[in-house]
Every structure is written in C-alpha cells, then in structure tokens.
Amino acid sequence: MNIQNILEAFDQAYNFRKLDGPNETKHVYTFTTNEGSGLEVMFLLNNKEREEWYVDFTRGVVGRDRSKEKFNVTGEGDAFRIFATILEIFRDFIKQVQPLRIYFSVDNTESSRIKLYDRMITRFANKMGYRLIGKENDNVLSINYTLQKIK
Fold first, then answer.
1. CATH of the domain at 121
2. CA–CA separation, 5 vs 16, rounded Å?
3. CB-based contacts of 146: which residues, under 8 Å, 6+ apart?
4. Number of folded domains that form the chain
5. Which of residues 61 and 95 earns the better pLDDT score?
6. Based on C-alpha coordinates, what's the Rg of the chain?
7. Which phi and psi (to 5°) does residue 149 adopt?
8. Range of the domain at 51
9. What is the separation, in whole angstroms, between the first and last Cα of the chain?
10. Which of 13, 58, 86, 95 has the most CB atoms at less than 10 Å from its CB?
C-alpha cells in the first residue's frame, strides 16, 4: 500500500451510528466494515468530578455478547478506514461532551500497532484540542494512554 492509498483511506471513514441518545455515564457508537465485522466504541464515565472518560473498543458481530473478544488485528486490510472511523467517533464524542480526560488501553503484543497509535495520537490529539499526558505500560499485554484537554 502506498502513501496515497493510506491518505485516501483516512478520508473514507465508515458510516457509524450512536446506539442511544446522550447519556450521563455512557456513549456507545457502532459501525460495520465492508467485510461484515462489527465494531463498537464505548465511552464510559470513569470519574464525574474529574470529567474522566474511559474508552473501550470491541470488534465482533454487532448486537452479540462480545465480552471475551478483543479489538485486535484481523488481517482484513481495512485498518486505516477503521482508524479513520474511530477518529470521527472521537470527534463526535468530544464535540458533545468535551471531557477533561480520556483514557484507553491498546493491545501491547504487536509493536507495529503501538507505533501506529503513537503516531496517530501525536498527529490528531492536538487537532481535537487534546494532548497526550500519559503512556503507561500497565502490564505485558496492554498500554494505557491518557489524553487531556488543552485549556
């Protein structure tokens, strides 16, 4: 895949929908890839006083119990469109809620995926009015990121 294809993929986010109206403690978004894989992005209020939200990413069949599934590499070839869609979902959530902090964890078993997250966060967080204030290796399996709103 050349750089032009990558840039075009970032301009072609999947259509997504919000499952419920604004909720004080939870916002859930879903979308389906061309291959039929469903993805869910859930924002959960972690600390109301500190306006902190945790983000959970799940991949599977939309509407099915996915408690044991992980958001991981599938080899389906649409990673950049998925990332573009997740960025659009983040923009929508931030526009509605304007949280002070956002936390999320990513799988630490693939170093290339971590490098991609690092580059995307560096590039897009500032554009959304946030900056990276923490990147912690919680354990062997995951890395935790913390974004804070720029005042």
1. 3.40.630
2. 22
3. 101, 102, 103, 132, 133, 134, 135, 136
4. 1
5. 95
6. 15
7. -65, 135
8. 3-149
9. 38
10. 86
| pLDDT tens-place string over residues 34-49 | 888 899 999 999 988 8
CB 146 within 8 A of CB 130: no
Both tokens assigned to 91: 């923009």
Q: Model-level pTM greater than 0.90? A: no
3-class secondary-structure state, position 95: helix
Question: What are the b/e assignments for 22-46, b being 16+ CB within 10 Å?
Answer: eeeeebebbbebeeebbbbbbbebb
CA distance 79 to 12: 12
Distance CA 61, CA 28 (A): 15
Determine the longest span between alpha carbons in the chain, in angstroms: 45
